Amino acid sequence: MTFPKAPRALCFLAVLTAGPGVLPAHAAETDPYDGAWHGSITPYGWLPGVTAKLRYSYQGSEVRDETDHDILDKLSGALMIAGDARKGDWGIYGDLDWVKFDNEKGRFRSVGGERVGGDVTLDTRSGLKGGFVTLAGLYSLSHGPEGNIDLLFGGRYLWLKGNLGWNFGFAGNRFGIAESGHLARNTHVTDALIGIRGRWTPGGGPWFFPYYADIGAGGSDLTSQLALGAGYAFHWGDVSLAWRYVTYRRDDDSFLERVSMMGPAIGLTWHF
C-alpha cells in the first residue's frame, strides 16, 4: 500500500504503534504468569531509513548498487504487526514487517572491474521492497514488579527485491554500458536466531523502558536486531516510542551484500 508524500509522516504517527519485540507489556491489573493464557497484539508504525549494498549481473559482469540512507523521503509503503501469547513461563512470539522504498539515489559502483562513481555524470534510481517474518518461542528468565526478561529462540525469514535503473549523461560505450537500462533481482533468506526481550519498570510504576536484541545466522552470514524505547502503561495496554535497527550481511557473491534499516517506531499494544 502507498501513502501520499505530504501526509506520510502523519499517517504513520497516527497509527500509534510499537517496535516489534519491544513490548512484552501487560496491563497493571493482570499477572501474565498466573498459568492462564495471555497475549497481546501490536500493529505498529516504523519509519526506517535504508542503507543497502546489492549485486546485479550485467552482460556477464557484476554491478554493485549502493543506496543512500533516508528516513522518510523514499518510503512509499509499509505494513507491520506483531503479537505474542504465553502460558506461565512459556510463550510464542511473531512479527511481520513489509516496507517499500522508491526512487532511491543509487551509486553505480562497478561493471566488469571498472569503477563508475555516482556523481553528476550519472542518473541512477533504485527501488527496494521486501519484508521479514520472525517466529520464536519465549521462556521467562526473570519477572517481577520492576520488569521482566524473556529468552527468545526461533527464526527469521527475509524476502527482498531490488530494481536498478540508470540514464547516463554521456555515451555509455566508454565503459561498455548502454546509456540507459534496468536491472532487477530478488533473494530469500532464512536464519535461526536467539535473543532477549523485556522491559524495565522503575518502582513498578506506569512508565517503562522496553528493550529487544537478537542475533542469528544461516541463510545470511549475520542478522541482528536491536530496539530500545520508553512507554507508558494504561489499564488496557501500552503506548511506547522506540528506536529500532535491523541488519543483514552476506559475504558471498549473492544479490544481497548488506542491508540495514534503522529508525523510530511509535505504537500501541492491546492485551487480552
Explained architecture:
A ten-stranded antiparallel barrel has the order 1-4-5-8-9-10-11-12-13-14. The two termini are 29 Å apart. Strand 13 (237-249) and strand 14 (256-271) form a beta hairpin. It is elongated. The protein has one helix at residues 8-15; strands at residues 37-46, 49-58, 61-66, 75-87, 90-105, 108-111, 114-115, 124-144, 147-167, 180-200, 207-218, 222-233, 237-249, 256-271. By secondary structure, it is mostly beta strands.
Note poorly predicted spans: 1-28, 112-121
Radius of gyration: 21 Å
Q: What is the mean pLDDT?
A: 76
First and last CA, distance: 29 Å
Strand arrangement, largest sheet?
A: 1-4-5-8-9-10-11-12-13-14
Give the total of beta strands: 14
Broad structural category: mainly beta
Count every helix, treating DSSP H or I runs of 4 or more residues as helices. 1
> Strand percentage, roughly?
over 45%
Determine the fraction of residues in helical runs and give it as a percent range: under 10%
Describe the global form: elongated
Q: Quick one: biggest sheet?
A: 10 strands, antiparallel, barrel
Order of helices and strands: HEEEEEEEEEEEEEE
